[in-house]
Amino acid sequence: MIHTVKISSGEATFCSRFVKTNKYIAERDLGYPIYPNMFGAFTSKITASLLLTAARILTGQFNPFANGVGTANTSLALIAGELFALVETDIPYQITVTENGDVATVGRRDFDSPESFQIMTAHPKFDPETGETFSFRYFPIPPFLKLFRIDSDGKKHKSVPIYSMKNCSFVHDFAVTKRFAVFPDTQIAIKPIEILRGKSTMRVDLEKIPKLGVIPRYAADESEMHWIDAPGLNLLHTANSWEEEDGGGEIVIIASNMLSIEHVVEQIELVDLSMEKIVIDLATKDVKRYPLSDLHLDFGVINPKYAGKKNRYVYAAVVESIPKMLGVVKIDLSRSTAEGGDCVVARRMYGPGCYGSEPIFVAREGAEEEDDGYLVAYVSNEKTEESHFVVMDAKSATLDIVAAVKLPRRVPQGFHSIFVKQTELLKM
Ligand SMILES: [Fe+2]
């Protein structure tokens, strides 16, 4: 379900709508669920429902291979000027926000793919200078990884299969700079065969050394790809990444790292999240990690103007346990040193019983400074079930709330968010 607040002419219009995925339509028409929740397959035992689904597919009742089984409930992205809802077990669904603030599903989009295209990450990377969107998919059958791009006209180009990733790992996000794409190879292995044994598809391999794979983003094949050991790094979400321009040949990634990874399958609430500055030295093939705070942080965002370019400020949610977010902090990357140190320069905690959504930075109209703008988020009180859409001043030391809209319904904790400008909406 997508929750929207459309602000126009001094009025806020709230809307909650399911994305009308093929799974949603099929199950709504039947009145009961037919496909297992693929995310549930990561962490729970779904053998019985999977076998039932297999029987329905074999008897011709449904065709998930042609129509997908995704829930489009993980993130939202603008791709070639259109708005999409995404989940990493399907391709994107195009949606629109109508003039009166309603949300409508346009449909499943394959971007005129020149090849079979059934799965895409929920975290593609948009280059504001070229209008291109870089993306990937991971899958439990070789090649476990594929890199591809969608151009500014919305056409998907042929993907680059990556066979040098030797096992299927959980690759939730990646990083893209002006010249490179960087993939994490985490300690979380995806093994669908385990479903048949009544076990989770996710297995943690603590013996494995995590790696980062660096490949030119316009690569025609993987011949120039390098995998570099990155001990202790199980990357979850990337806030930004860039290449240092001092000729040192370094890539910097600002990302959340899953600590105590051994709990990810059975007790995800025990997984701690650290926001880190990760520096890859391309010459020495060395990775260094610098934690930016002792707080448990995830869902890092930036001023989108700086995507793929060196920037100073990152905003991140303070996570109690995934996905419960207690507040938001502002991180000043200029304070990061080789010794680490706390780079948090501003924070706002939402208060007892209150949890927020992923915070989003919105630049003030005409702003010149990177942090001249607002942070917006949904905040819900678990006890009263009241929800607000709040607007915070990103420049103030306490991230002051400068506006709040009380919503007519509760907005539950969710995954990712997006802010879309009126000018972008009008172009759709
Ligand atoms: Fe995510």
Offer a quick outline of the entry.
This protein is mostly beta strands and 428 residues long. The chain has helices at 22-30, 40-43, 47-58, 64-67, 422-427; strands spanning 2-8, 11-17, 75-79, 82-86, 93-97, 103-108, 125-126, 133-138, 145-150, 160-162, 175-176, 180-185, 188-190, 202-204, 211-216, 226-229, 235-243, 250-259, 272-281, 286-291, 297-301, 313-321, 324-332, 344-349, 354-356, 360-363, 373-381, 387-393, 401-406.
Description:
- This protein has 428 residues and is mainly beta.
- It has a domain at 292-428.
- 8% of the residues lie in helices and 39% in strands.
- The chain has five helices and 29 strands.
- The chain has helices at 22-30, 40-43, 47-58, 64-67, 422-427; strands at residues 2-8, 11-17, 75-79, 82-86, 93-97, 103-108, 125-126, 133-138, 145-150, 160-162, 175-176, 180-185, 188-190, 202-204, 211-216, 226-229, 235-243, 250-259, 272-281, 286-291, 297-301, 313-321, 324-332, 344-349, 354-356, 360-363, 373-381, 387-393, 401-406.
- Strands 25, 26, 27, 28 and 29 form a five-stranded antiparallel β-sheet that branches. It has a four-stranded antiparallel β-sheet with strand order 3-4-5-6.
- The protein is globular and about 60 Å long.
- The model has no long low-confidence stretch (mean pLDDT 92).
